[in-house]
Amino acid sequence: MNEYLKHDEWCIIEEGFTPENHRASESIFSLGNGNMGQRAMFEEHYSGKSLQGTYVAGVYYPDKTRVGWWKNGYPEYFAKVLNAPNWIGIDVTINGEMLDLAKAKVSDFVRTLNMKEGVLERSFVAEMSNGNQIKVEAKRFLSIVTSEVGVIRYSVTALNCKAKVSFTPYINADVANEDSNYDEKFWDILNTRSIHGEGYVISRTKKLDFHVCMGMKYDVFKAGQKLEIYPSMIEADKYIANTVEFDVEQGEELSIYKYAAVLSSLNHNKLDIMSKTQNVVSEAYKKGYNALLKEHVAAWADKWAHSDITIEGDVAAQQAIRFNIFQLNQTYTGEDERLNIGPKGFTGEKYGGSTYWDTEAYCVPFYLSTSKPEVTRNLLIYRHKQLQKAIENATKLGFTNGAALYPMVTMNGEECHNEWEITFEEIHRNGAIAFAIYNYIRHTGDQKYLEEYGLDVLIGISRFWSQRITFSQAKKKYVMLGVTGPNEYENNINNNWYTSTIANWCLKYTQEAMAHVKETNLNRYNEIIKNLNFNFVKEISKWNDIIENMYYPVDEETGVFLQQEGYMDKEQILAADLDPAVRPINQHWSWDRILRSCFIKQADVLQGIYLFEDQFDLETIKKNYNFYEPRTLHESSLSPCIHSILASKIGDSKGAYDLYLRTSRLDLDDYNKEVHEGLHITSMAGTWMSIVEGFGGMRVVNGKLVLNPLIPEEWKSFSFKVRFRGNLLNVRVSDKEVGVINEEGEDISVFIIDDEYVIEKSSSLVIERD
Amino acid sequence: MNEYLKHDEWCIIEEGFTPENHRASESIFSLGNGNMGQRAMFEEHYSGKSLQGTYVAGVYYPDKTRVGWWKNGYPEYFAKVLNAPNWIGIDVTINGEMLDLAKAKVSDFVRTLNMKEGVLERSFVAEMSNGNQIKVEAKRFLSIVTSEVGVIRYSVTALNCKAKVSFTPYINADVANEDSNYDEKFWDILNTRSIHGEGYVISRTKKLDFHVCMGMKYDVFKAGQKLEIYPSMIEADKYIANTVEFDVEQGEELSIYKYAAVLSSLNHNKLDIMSKTQNVVSEAYKKGYNALLKEHVAAWADKWAHSDITIEGDVAAQQAIRFNIFQLNQTYTGEDERLNIGPKGFTGEKYGGSTYWDTEAYCVPFYLSTSKPEVTRNLLIYRHKQLQKAIENATKLGFTNGAALYPMVTMNGEECHNEWEITFEEIHRNGAIAFAIYNYIRHTGDQKYLEEYGLDVLIGISRFWSQRITFSQAKKKYVMLGVTGPNEYENNINNNWYTSTIANWCLKYTQEAMAHVKETNLNRYNEIIKNLNFNFVKEISKWNDIIENMYYPVDEETGVFLQQEGYMDKEQILAADLDPAVRPINQHWSWDRILRSCFIKQADVLQGIYLFEDQFDLETIKKNYNFYEPRTLHESSLSPCIHSILASKIGDSKGAYDLYLRTSRLDLDDYNKEVHEGLHITSMAGTWMSIVEGFGGMRVVNGKLVLNPLIPEEWKSFSFKVRFRGNLLNVRVSDKEVGVINEEGEDISVFIIDDEYVIEKSSSLVIERD
Question: How far is B334 from chain A (nearest CA, A)?
Answer without folding.
Answer: 31
